[in-house]
Amino acid sequence: MTEIGSLASEPLFGLPLPELWFALLFFIFAMFLFLDGFDFGVGILFATRDDEHEQEQLLAAIGPFWDGNEVWLVVFGGTLFAAFPAVYANLFSRYYLLMFAILAALGFRGLAPEMYEEREDTQWRRFWGYAFIIGSTTTPFLLGIFVMNWLLGASALISLQGVLAGLAVVALTVVDGAAFLGLKTRGALRDDARTYGVRAAIGYLVLTGLTLGLVYSTTPSLRPSFQSPAIVGLVLLTGGLVAGYILAFRTQRYHLTFVIAAGLVFALVTLLAGLMFPVVDRAAELTIRDAIISTLPLNLMTIMASVLLPLVFGYFVVLYSAFSGPIESEETYR
User: Has residue 99 been placed in a domain?
Assistant: First the structure.
């Protein structure tokens, strides 16, 4: 009874659990954006291929991974609901049309490769190929709008800041997808991925700069956050990572390119969390400690997370180890 009483009245081991769960929430989102981001990027680059065999290779490259990668989005939603239920309710009620659009785009993207393989008919495959491209492009674009609305506490679904953020996230997924194809393909596919990846990296840097500049000029309440050393450091780090990505790609160091792509994703999500902190819902004026659940369930969730998260990571280590290395020329999605 004493131990239960302690769990109900004091944070586990005296840890700052509200802040740790805030960090965990954005870490999970970064994992989703990185892992499913290369799936989106490959889907966008699918539009650059006319040869059916090359299209099959792109589908084969992501085939073992994309449905597993989407698990991180489910975990993100579950974490937000479990740790910050008021924020979950506010965001989904405020932006429910945007949420449904994201889910529809994800469903379209997931259905397209399955339907693409069902028939050999040219018209059939062209339609589902376009569906794959549209779903892969629309999802990160809408996610960018969502996170910008969340950051700003916007009441309108669409704003210039949101559109720029959406375009930046689309460019980032191409950066991620091109780096992934650098590991998984050979020959012309790899060479073209390098070209598109470099262009996307430059585009991402420009779009990110424009987005941050616009947010700074139009949102006075966020200006102190922009001026913090951590945020300035993350902005400078992003520029350095883009330069490193381009150099690594041009020197054909594909593993390093992929690691740098991951760094760009995590830098962006850390920047978002840093600008938001300590407010987790600006529209409702909720800070992290205002929105967090009570001590007992928070302690119990922390214990459960410390057990379950290593298992999830173990699963992904096994998955990516089993399907490591470039795909063979004869491989298909099935």
Answer: yes
Answer yes or no: is 248 within a domain.
Answer: yes
Chain mean pLDDT for the chain: 91
75: CB partners within 8 A, 6+ apart: 28, 32, 312
DSSP 25-69: HHHHHHHHHHHHHHHHHHHHHGGG---HHHHHHHHHHHTTTHHHH
pLDDT in tens, 149-185: 999 999 888 999 999 999 999 999 999 999 999 999 9
Which residues neighbour 48 within 8 Å (Cβ) at sequence distance 6 or greater? 192, 196
Domain count, the chain: 1
Q: What does the DSSP assignment read for 68-125?
A: HHTHHHHHHHHHHHHH-HHHHHHHHHHTHHHHHHHHHHHHHHHHHHHHHTT---HHHH
Report yes or no on 190 lying in a domain: yes
Task: Give the CATH number, domain containing residue 228.
Answer: 1.20.1630
Contact 201, 246 (CB under 8 A): yes
Asked if residues 95 and 157 have their Cβ atoms less than 8 Å apart, the reply is yes
